[in-house]
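Case study: ECF RNA polymerase sigma factor SigL.
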Amino acid sequence: MPHDDVERRDSAAGRDAARLAALYDAHAAPVWRYVVHLTGDRAGADDIVQETLLRAWRTPKILEQDPSTTRSWMFTVARHLVIDEARSARRRREIDVAEVPERTAPDATDALFEAILVEEALATLTTDHRAVVVRAYYRGLSVAEMADELDIPEGTVKSRLHYGLRALRLTLQEKGVTR
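Here is what the predicted structure looks like once written out:
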């Protein structure tokens, strides 16, 4: 990049920084007091003032006007930002509370009773039938994996799984569980 371009860019950046500093010095405090008066929120006022100053800085013709006109424009922008914030979805969903509520956990009572019921029903199966049912439904093994692990033919695994599920279904029906 040529030396002249670097100097021009640095010079322009310096002028922008000076303009922004002058804008802040002249208008930030009165706009901040105005926003606090509207909202009662000192922390939120900082954000509104920052956005107002940014919009003024991005609108060069505002900065070239009379300072009272610029301040008037900034009050209007700040008021619109306050209104927008009040209407925003985020603001409507937020509720101020003194303490953060405890997190609630879903009631697991039904799941506990179901687990006990299934465990009791599984206990009524033969050891061979229970072995394939547990491997298939709780460990997620395939027929081939179960056959390899139990050292039995795949057809035997399928048969034990079929009859084991049938016996499990009958036991659960006897306990009052319906489909």
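For the exam, be able to explain this: The longest helix spans residues 3-39.
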